[in-house]
Specification:
By secondary structure, this protein is of the alpha/beta class. The protein has 12 helices and 15 strands.
């Protein structure tokens, strides 16, 4: 088996296998890698939308278990309305079946599929990449990262690790994000308030929490704004940034979230400005942009 490929696709989920299929069909020498043994069990189900079903590289009918043509809209699981569509809306499957099926089709198209093959090392250069596994070393011209935003490809490319964790799950998921994903900041992290050692760790290592009060209430991560743990985080010395999450979905804005934070933390204009300064300083923006933004905040605070 040759150890030289045009493209290596890391991650054989639906996106990775689809990319490998199209590349192989176009004549490229493709290596498709995944750390898991296939078929792999995934806790999430598989809902394939009608558009995705139509644009899938192969007919997915063999792995479809149910079709959905009705949907129920409800407000906080109370008042609802049902809608029936004349065509299929969603094709239901199981991720273990769907992922294996797509990977098999990528291999049939000519890709070399290697499951149970975690990457030990990935080195990127202007001339391509070197991939090391436990068994082989591969030279490739292009790497396609389909192993997640916090996967090895993202890290090798210098992308930052900023996962959501502890929003509707316990503090153990925040620990996992820190230990497994090397999180540089945590989205939401509301349940971190339940673990004193975790709060100490976040404060000591200056790992910011991206606090989104309105979103956390809407998703029932917290019962109400007054019960939001933002004060717990502040008192524990955890670095905080205030965020709007999805403004249109949650009916809010960054200004609105800062107003909420100001009320909960009893902040004056100077205190809100400090929150904004923290957001800038802990961002991944270039230094010249940080300097410019901090100057704008200082000017606002003086006004």
């Amino acid at each position: 088996m040759s150890n030289k490929y045009d493209v290596a696709v890391v991650g054989a989920g639906p996106s990775g296998s689809t990319a490998a299929y199209h590349l192989a069909k176009s004549g490229a020498r493709v290596l498709l890698l995944d750390k898991a043994k296939y078929p792999r069990v995934k806790p999430c189900g598989g809902g394939v939308t009608a558009r995705c079903f139509e644009q899938a590289p192969v007919d997915l009918t063999p792995v479809v278990e149910r079709v959905i043509d009705r949907v129920r809209f409800s407000f906080r699981l109370g008042n609802f309305m049902d809608y029936e569509y004349p065509k299929t809306l969603v094709y239901m499957t199981q991720r273990d079946r769907l992922d294996a099926f797509l990977a098999e089709n990528a291999a049939a198209a000519g890709a070399t599929f290697m499951d149970a093959t975690p990457l030990r090392e990935l080195t990127l250069s202007k001339d391509g990449a070197r991939i090391a596994t436990a068994r082989d070393v591969f030279e490739v011209d292009v790497v396609v990262g389909a192993d997640g935003a916090n996967g090895i490809v993202a890290r090798a490319a210098g992308l930052h690790s900023v996962p959501h964790a502890g929003e509707t799950t316990g503090p153990e998921t925040v620990w996992d994000a820190l230990r497994i994903l090397g999180a540089e900041r945590i989205g939401h992290g509301t349940s971190a308030a339940e673990d004193e050692k975790l709060l100490e760790h976040l404060a000591q290592h200056k790992i910011p929490l991206e606090v989104c009060p309105s979103s956390n209430v809407a998703t029932r991560a917290v019962a109400s704004l007054d019960e939001h743990p933002i004060t717990v985080f502040r008192d524990a010395g955890v670095t905080l940034t205030v965020n709007s999450d999805d403004p249109s979905m949650f009916g809010t804005s960054l200004n609105g979230e800062n107003e909420i934070a100001a009320r909960l933390l009893d902040l004056d204009t100077g205190g809100v400005a400090d929150l904004a300064r923290t957001a800038v300083r802990t961002s991944f923006a270039p230094e010249d942009l940080k300097i410019s933004l901090l100057a704008e905040i200082d000017e606002y605070a003086r006004a």
